[in-house]
Every structure is written in structure tokens, then in C-alpha cells.
Amino acid sequence: MIKAVIFDMYETLITHYQSPLYFGRQMAADAGIPESQFGERWHLTEIDRTIGKVTLEEVIESILRDNGCYSEEVFCRIVQKRIAAKEECFRHLHKEIIPMLDCLRERGMKVGLISNCFSEEASVIRKSVLFPYFDAACLSYEQGIRKPDAEIFTRCADQLKVKAGECLYVGDGGSHELEAARAVGMNAVQAVWYLREGTNQPCGRKADFVQIENPLGLFEIMMQD
Description:
By secondary structure, this protein is of the alpha/beta class. It has helices at residues 24-31, 35-44, 46-50, 56-66, 72-89, 97-106, 119-127, 140-143, 150-160, 177-183, 218-223; strands at residues 4-7, 110-115, 136-139, 167-171, 187-191, 211-212. A six-stranded parallel beta sheet has the order 3-2-1-4-5-6, with helices on both faces.
């Protein structure tokens, strides 16, 4: 019996791809640094940024100083634009996201969140319109571990006070999250409502998992349990 639903955040509850992107390419342009030169340093810090070892501000300042182009103006512009881009994602929710979460609450279902995220994302998530819906939130930046580490899945289930087998995990499939959720005993399904061909989204359809085309379709899956 399903007692809790645990969601991924990016490309599941929200998406980057319905608003202007502000990734490494765009930051490099604002810094006046070649994309390859900026990207090499940026990507090398990804794991450390994801597990709370370094912040956005620390990385941007280091890259700018090492390339001899640091100024307070450029630094602040990049940081502020990066945060604004993350905030913008929450203004383009699929129309069924809030009704789905409301319905889960009305049914007395526990709701969890497991998200790989950076310092700027963790802050934005906690201030977002979605955060009050979560009974437990395991953010990699705060937890010091990230998906697909099994520990972040078991921590979330423990915080929800349910067994892994009583959890339905819903994610787009990036970071091998569906396989990891299944491995710890959770029921795992793929959210594909934000999936768009021709984008750089981290994952396509996975034939090994049931796919949900719209958020409210989640309840059809739950009725089959």
C-alpha cells in the first residue's frame, strides 16, 4: 500500500526549459570568458557544488579571479542572474502540479522531495510555492549526498516514517534516480510531462518504467496499487 509519494524536483515538478536558460554558456558570456574555458572549471566543481562543499558564489569568484576578470559588478550580475533563472522556473509550472499536490494532501498522503541541487537552488526551493507541500525534503546540498546514492532515498523514507516499499517515487529519470529508487525497494515511475524533444534535458523515456504523461495521471497509478 502506498503511503507516501516522493518527487524529484527538476524536470518533474518544475522545468528549466520553459524559461530562459542561464547555464555555463550564458555565465561565460557575461564573464567575457570563452565557454570552453569557463565550462572546464564550472563542470569540475559540479559534484562539490551538489553535496554542499562549495557555493555558487565561491565558484564564480574563483573562476573570475583566475581569469583576471573579477569585478564586483560582473560577479554580482552573474550570481543574481543565476538565482533569478532558478526562481523563474517556478513561474512556469505545469497546470496540474498544484492540483496534484493539493489532492495528495486531501487524501492524507505524505509527500517527500529528493533533489540534487546547488546552493542557489536549495535556497530558491525552500522559498518556493511548492515547499510547504513537503513533509520531508532531502536536498543534496544540505544532505552531503546526492542521487543515485541509496542513502538519500532511505533518509527521505525515514523522515516520512514509512518503509521504502510504501513509497512511490516520481522522477524524470535523470541521475539514474528511478533505478536507485527501485533498488532500495520503492515503486518508481517516470514523469514525462515536461519531456520535450530537441532540448538538452538529462533524460529521455525509459522503457523499463511506467510513464506518466500528466501530473494528475499519478492517481491512476496509485489506484492500481
